[in-house]
Design a protein that fits this description.
Layout: H1 26-36, H2 45-68, H3 79-89, H4 94-100, H5 103-113, H6 117-126, H7 130-135
């Protein structure tokens, strides 16, 4: 094998050259650049703080919705409007209503109505269409 010596061979000129007096003013130029490009310091926790605030707002709104949307008070409905609704708007038939009533409800209705037998007999005798009442 031939011996190879780097010191004796032809030299390759480098492609880079530093300008004259570059390193003499380098420190002043670098400090001037650093001072002029100084950016404000941002906290790492700033983005996390925004996420916590957004989550807290969503939680507060979620808890407040049931309190803000209170249902209307149903105690103000009078019996006549309820009876009209059940008679004309509802799909519940009279047979469904009868099946839904308990024995206590039926007794309460009987005590509220208290119709005398004489009134019933006179209504039946005046009505010529007695068969409709008997078949229903």
């Amino acid at each position: 094998m031939n011996s190879f010596n780097l010191e004796n061979g032809p030299k390759i000129k480098p492609g880079f050259k530093t300008p004259d007096n570059y390193f003499e003013n380098f420190s002043e130029q670098m400090l001037a650049r650093i001072d002029s490009n100084e950016k404000p310091v941002r906290s790492i926790f700033q983005r996390r703080k925004n996420w916590f605030m957004a989550a807290a707002a969503v939680l507060i709104i979620g808890i407040a919705i049931p309190f803000l949307n209170k249902p209307a008070n149903n105690a103000s409905i009078d019996g006549e409007s309820l009876e009209n609704y059940l008679a004309y708007q509802s799909t519940i038939s009279q047979y469904d209503l009868i099946n839904l009533l308990d024995k206590e409800d039926i007794e309460a209705l009987e005590s509220d109505l208290k119709i005398d037998d004489a009134v019933v007999e006179s209504a039946l005798s005046d009505n010529t269409n007695l068969e409709n009442y008997l078949t229903e």
